[in-house]
């Protein structure tokens, strides 16, 4: 599926800016911030503004085409991978890594559903030190 069709599948009207931003999110699994996306695309799209990037990402999140991560308290990051997975942030290098989740429901989720709650999304965040930094720092 191309990005144009991907956006349409989420009832988002494609535009040059929206296609470029979603394409960037889908190709770069680095959990970029608004500033990172803007800096990556502003050379190719001179009319792009940070406000446009912000509003576009907000639209993507509202329509379920992307996720906003708040693992880093200083900066919201965005993820084009909307499949169920967790995130790990290294306290040394700051890199955010995707962590696969099992498809099994947690006991907590089962209890909430039994009590009548409808769970629409979950966020699993882990923080610590990544293997690369542990190796480099000898900890």
What distinguishing features does this structure have?
two-stranded antiparallel ribbon, three-stranded mixed β-sheet, 139 residues, alpha+beta, 5 strands
General description of the model:
By secondary structure, the chain is of the alpha+beta class. It has six helices and five strands. The protein has helices at 3-9, 16-27, 34-41, 50-62, 107-114, 131-137, and strands spanning 67-69, 77-79, 85-90, 96-100, 125-128. The strands form two sheets. A three-stranded mixed β-sheet has the order 4-3-5, with no helix packed on it. The radius of gyration is 17 Å and the shape is flat.
Ordered list of secondary-structure elements with their pairings:
Blueprint: H1 3-9, H2 16-27, H3 34-41, H4 50-62, E1 67-69, E2 77-79, E3 85-90, E4 96-100, H5 107-114, E5 125-128, H6 131-137
Parallel strand pairs: 3-5
Antiparallel strand pairs: 1-2, 3-4
Helix pairs in contact: 2-4, 3-4
- Our Rg estimate from Cα atoms comes to 17 Å
The overall pLDDT average reads 90
Distance between the termini: 44 Å
Quick one: how many beta strands?
5
Biggest sheet record: 3 strands, mixed
Q: Uncertain spans, ≥5 residues at pLDDT below 50? A: none
Summed up, the helix count is: 6
- Percent helix: 25-40%
Question: Given the C-alpha coordinates, what overall shape results?
Answer: flat
Quick structural summary:
It contains six helices and five strands; from the N terminus they run ααααββββαβα. It has 139 residues and is α+β, with helices and mostly antiparallel strands.
């Amino acid at each position: 599926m191309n990005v144009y069709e991907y956006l349409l599948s989420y009832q988002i009207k494609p535009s040059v800016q929206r296609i470029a931003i979603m394409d960037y999110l889908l190709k770069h699994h680095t959990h970029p911030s608004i500033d990172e996306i803007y800096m990556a695309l502003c050379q190719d799209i001179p009319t792009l503004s940070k406000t446009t990037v912000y509003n576009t990402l907000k639209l993507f999140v509202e329509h379920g085409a992307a996720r906003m991560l708040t693992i880093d308290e200083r900066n919201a990051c965005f993820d084009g991978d909307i499949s169920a997975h967790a995130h790990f942030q290294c306290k040394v290098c700051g890199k955010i890594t995707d962590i696969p989740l099992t498809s099994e429901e947690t006991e907590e989720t089962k209890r909430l559903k039994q009590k009548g709650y409808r769970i629409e999304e979950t966020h699993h965040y882990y923080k610590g030190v990544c293997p690369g930094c542990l190796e480099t720092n000898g900890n």
